[in-house]
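JOB MANIFEST
job_type = single_chain_structure
chain_count = 1
residues = 378
[input]
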Amino acid sequence: MKLAFLLFALVALSECLHKIPLKKGKTAREVLQEQGLWEEFRKKHPYNPMVKFTSNSAGTEQMTNDADLSYYGVISIGNPPQSFTVIFDTGSSNLWVPSIYCSSPACSNHAKFNPKGSSSFKFTSESVAIQYGTGSMTGVLGYDTVEVGGIIVPNQIFGLSETEADFMYYMKADGILGLAFPSISSSGATPVFDNMMSQTLVSQSLFSVYLSRNSEEGSVVIFGGIDPSYFTGTIFWLPLTSETYWQISMDSVTINGNIVACAGGCQAIVDTGTSLIVGPSTDIANINSWVGALTDEYGDVTVTCSNIQRMPNVTFSLNGYTFEIPASAYVSQSSSSCSVGFGYGGTEQLWILGDVFIRQYYAIFDRGNNQVGLALGV
């Protein structure tokens, strides 16, 4: 009876959820490969995912040039509304989009916000700077109405870019909507979800993410609740160890019962804004060895496509619960090769559970109780 009541309550809540469809589009890597520019590009811009989380610069929110991000959704800003495609990024906290004042090539093929076209826009005298692995976004802050999945957020502070890193030219997204905590927000700008909560625009102080595994359609970000149609079985709740990023405790990583990484425990961040599962380079090298992968001079990891069916599951133990990632989830197959989704993070003793992990597990980000919920995705 209790279970039936709980399911009824979840279904009832799902009817008033605010869903933003995400499209799985071409990645920057795919665009560059099509244009024959990938080899030269990655020489100049090596993948450095950990820079996003290890900045020592006060007031600077670090991000990275992830060439494999592929999930984007649409928001609007201003009155009348101007539409933008953004990455919903749980690993950062600022909202920013290109502006008509941007002089960088990266802005030339993206939508640009025009303050003069909005009757509700208000300038500030504050600047904003967000450092990437290979450059930065700089700009100014302003206030305007932001619409996300039918939720109208008045007087939302956001960044209007004036310069952007070169790699953004090759990305589908116009900008970023950060969903981490206010404590890491550049220039102290209040994040969008914090305004949703403080203005009681959502029924619950949480949001959730479902990333489809094979289809370009079907992925969503859901504000204000949990939709049981996107997962099966139990939701496992993991308490946060830091109210900055969505950081949790990881006990170990095992393959066939053998500890292959994170021996003795470590910390992990659940991040929709990183495409791979990233960890300390020595641990990642061990995992890739166990699954039979080879790493080239640029850090790209590949396997023989015909071996996928024989490759082992990789098991992540988080706060006493186990979460398996099968080879079908951590190997990505293209027309020419098969790449492995375990990325090298350098010497930093920190893990990022990015899209490779989240595609397998429906992820719930609960600000009300400072916890992450994970359930097996459908």
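[summary]
The chain is about 15% helix and 40% strand.
The chain has two domains: 17-208, 227-377.
exit_status = 0
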